[in-house]
Structures are given as C-alpha cells and as structure tokens.
Amino acid sequence: MSATLTPLASDEFQAPGLGIFDWPPLVEGQAWFNKPALLALVGTLLVMVLTYFAFSRPKLVPRGFQNAGELAYQFVREQIARPNLGKDSDRWMPLLFTLFLFVLVMNLFGSVIFIQFPVMSRIGYPAILSIFVWLLVMYLGIKHQGPIGFFKNVMFPPGLPGWIYVLVAPIEFISTFFLRHITHAVRLFATMMAGHLIIALFSEVGWHFLATNLTPLGAPLGILGVAMTILLTAFEIFIQALQAYVFALLAAMFINDALHPAH
Amino acid sequence: MSAAVLAEVTGNLGSIGYGLAAIGPGIGIGIIFGQGVQAIARQPEAYGLIRQNMILGFVFAEALALIGIALAFAFRA
C-alpha cells in the first residue's frame, strides 16, 4: 500500500469483514467449544426433541406437534424423495428427513433473534455432512453396480462416438466423484456466509449512521440500512429454507445415481 | 506522482473480481427463470415438475456466484 493513503478516521464507516465469523471459545482452554459448536449441539438436541414429541406417540387423528411433524415429513417425501428415488424412497426417508430438518434448524438459527448465527456459515459443518453423503454414495455405488461397473457406468456412458470418450471420461470422473460433492458443501456454506455478511453490513450501516454517528445527511442512509436489514432478513429466511431443501434434494439425487446407473 | 503510475486502484480488488464473477450466473439465472416461466405458461399442469427443475438449475448456476464471493475473501491480499 502506498504511504499517501490517509489513515482511517475513527468515525469513518467500516464494513464488517470475515471477523464476524470468528468466535472466541466459550470455556477457557477448550478451543473447539465456541458459539457455532454450542449452537450445533443445541440444534441437534432440538431436532431430536421435536421429532420425539412429534412421532413418539402417533395418533390416528394428529394433533399439535404431530401435525407439524407430519407436514414436514410429507413435504420431504413428496417433494424430495419420491421424484428422485421412486420406489426406494421409503428406505431413504429417515436419512433425507434428518438431513433436511438438521440443515433447516442450523440455517434458521441465522434468523432467530439473539442467536443470529447460521451454523452452516462455518465450512466444517456442511463439509462433514457432504463427506458423509460422499462415503454413502461410494459404498452404495460399489455395492449395487460393482466396483468396476460403478466407475464404468459413470465414465463411459453408452451411445457416444468412440473418440469423444477421451474427453468425457476424465470430465465425468472428476465432476461426478469429486466436484459435485465439493459444491454440495460449498453451496450451503457460501449461501449462508454471504447472507449473514449482507445482513451484518446493512445492520452495521443502520447502527453507524443512526446510533453512533447521527448526522442530518447520514440519517436517511441509516434508515435505508435498517429497512434493508428487515427486508433481507425476510429474504434470508426463504433462502435458508430453500438451501435445506436443495441439500436434501441433491443428496437424494446422488443416492439415486449410485443405486441405478444413468440411462 | 511519478510518471510510471498512470492509474492507481485503491481499495479491495476482490469486489471487482466478484462483480465479474457474478455476470455469468446472473445471465444464467435469468435464462433459467425466463424459460421456466415460459414453460409454466405453456403447460400449467406440469407446474410441480417445472418448478423443481427450475430450482435445481437455479442452485447450480447460483453456486458459481457463491464460489465467487467466497474466493473474493479467500484470495484477499
């Protein structure tokens, strides 16, 4: 940087950076136990408790929690499992429903007031889910299509002119076995991170221009910041639910690809 | 100012990079939803199927823009 740059004045607006994703440990000496880790534990317990109350004593005419639970279950079955897995869907429903509900709760923490941190905006949490799906897909593919058949069906789809396999085989190999599983995690992580960052930016604008540096010219900008925070929080809730749906949908697609070779 | 410096860029180049990275996915998402709405208008009874494929295509295109915003932070000087 050149020395001609003037140093930042103390009352100048500074946009929030990646620092908002770094949390100090809650307990001294336990570096792993920070706010995201606590939220992940709370969210796991929450999912377990909610599903226990919803499905532990099923009644023929559902009431209360069972109504909500069955609504969520039906959504996952009709929108995610059945279109992709067909007659195998009942076998995979426990996994898909758990994935959907877990990711949904983790994401929605970003919009719950006083918590306001989407756990999935730390790459480790979506990465472990996607590694789990990857291991499952590799196991299922080798089990159902054979160790050679699994790779052959993906890399050498029938019905193409011979010379094009030089191009198709490596591209399909990398994209099917690695890239799509990496983007599976990165998509969830980056959406949550970008959304959290944008909301932090606009609320920082509101705080800076209305609370700490109130000026006649800055006040409209601060009001705009607060309005955008509210609007984007509503949009973020939609995105958080959509990403949970997409995560489970892609898991169902990958499982189906491993069970049956593409035609 | 020395003669060698003709134009100086201060601030974060990552934001320019992200702006460039958002062009492609922006066009792609526009095409996906435009064609999706057209398909629904032509065949309203296939709404469920079209919407699901539309969202699927949307997330694939969106992933590129999101990777862009993540890398703008990752490769910061």
TrEMBL record, chain B:
PROSITE patterns: ATPASE_C. This is ATP synthase subunit c. It is found in: Cell membrane; Membrane. The record marks 62 as: Reversibly protonated during proton transport. Its main location: membrane. It is a multi-pass membrane protein. The chain crosses the membrane at residues 16-34, 55-75. Belongs to the ATPase C chain family. NCBIfam families: ATP_synt_c (TIGR01260). Keywords: ATP synthesis, Cell membrane, CF(0), Hydrogen ion transport, Ion transport, Lipid-binding, Membrane, Transmembrane, Transmembrane helix, Transport.
